[in-house]
Amino acid sequence: EQQIVLASRPEGRPTRDTFRYETIELDALKADQVLVETLYISVDPYMRGRMNDARSYSQPFDLDAPIQGGVVARVVESTSDLLTVGDTVVGMLDWATKSVVDAKQVRKIDATLAPVSTALGVLGMTGMTAYFGLLDIGNPQSGETVVVSAAAGAVGSIVGQIAKIKGARVVGIAGSAEKIQYLKEELGFDEVINYKTEQIGEALDRTCPDGIDVYFENVGGAIGDAVLDRLNPFARIPVCGAISGYNEQADLGPRVQSKLIIARARMQGFLVGDYGKRFKEAAEQLGKWVSNGELKYEETIFEGFEQVPDAFLGLFDGSNTGKLLVKL
Ligand code: NDP
After folding, report:
1. Residue 301: helix, strand or coil by DSSP?
2. How many domains is the chain built from?
3. Does the ipTM exceed 0.90?
4. What HEC string does 88-124 produce?
5. Distance (Å, rounded) from C-alpha 302 to C-alpha 167?
6. Ligand 1 and 67: CB distance under 6 A
7. pTM score, two decimals?
8. With 80 as the cut, is the pLDDT of residue 250 above it?
9. Are 33 and 99 members of one domain?
10. Nearest residue to 34 (alpha-carbon basis) of 130, 100, 91, 87
11. What is the domain-level CATH number for residue 310?
12. What positions does the domain Enoyl reductase (ER) occupy (predicted)?
């Protein structure tokens, strides 16, 4: 079997040399453990932060130790009463082809309800992030204008659709013509901006003639700056991520104090992990919307364990529409 370890701490953008493949021998199962075979590996932007040796909300990855992230796997051996062979589970596991873990470290998923990959996307971490960040902090009202950046990504695509369900007017910002078409034609966004080909300020003026009531921030930098110049009074800004700065050492802003004062706006960072007590509520609601067709989801799937580093790097190139996953 194989695993992927952090070979070096990247300065700036990670490369293939950030990662190293190793052959592993798995331990025999102790009591209350399972041997699982990896089916899907989730690659996520926050993992870039864990590659730095810096204090943050999650521990840095150790050098020369396996990288861990969201994984969907199948149980192939069990000494636990909780799980049997053939069960599908999700958890924070090593980037490995197989793993031995405590049964309590994973959660069983119902493979009859939805494709199991959705436990890493729309019905998992990224869907929950969209749900809580938008509804709890953004609180969009019918007729308001909601702007979302990285709009065609895992979180952004769900944010925009939930905002539509709540009756808002939705403007999505994304980085390619295909994504723009997807947002407009498949997901029904009201307006779309290609930040790579359009001048962002002009494009916001064109698409948000009545100003901006909610900005779901995924990228930061110049896009965040331009949106914050166009806030309506009492705007809300869930600060979910700032991917444009994850590989930079410099602080890219936005610079916000006077903008927040002028608009009496509220900007609030959040972590999906803080909503653990309400995951069931979110999973049920997201599941309902998916099954009644109100909520669509896309996955970009790289095939094969050897593709994991390239898939991760692809997040910074915008190579994904919807959730980026690797299928083993
Ligand atoms: P996505 O599926 O959105 O993938 C990342 C996307 O970001 C890319 O597809 C790309 O799309 C866009 N992007 C990359 N670099 C830049 C750049 N320099 N400027 C503008 N856009 C860029 O990832 P997720 O949905 O998983 O995550 C989205 C954001 O949410 C991230 O910032 C992430 O850290 C954050 N997050 C926060 C959580 C929380 O609890 N607070 C939980 C989960 C995610 P494009 O082609 O449009 O450029």
Report:
1. strand
2. 2
3. yes
4. EEEEEEECECEEEEEHHHEEEECCCCCCHHHHHCCCC
5. 35
6. no
7. 0.98
8. no
9. yes
10. 100
11. 3.90.180.10
12. 15-326
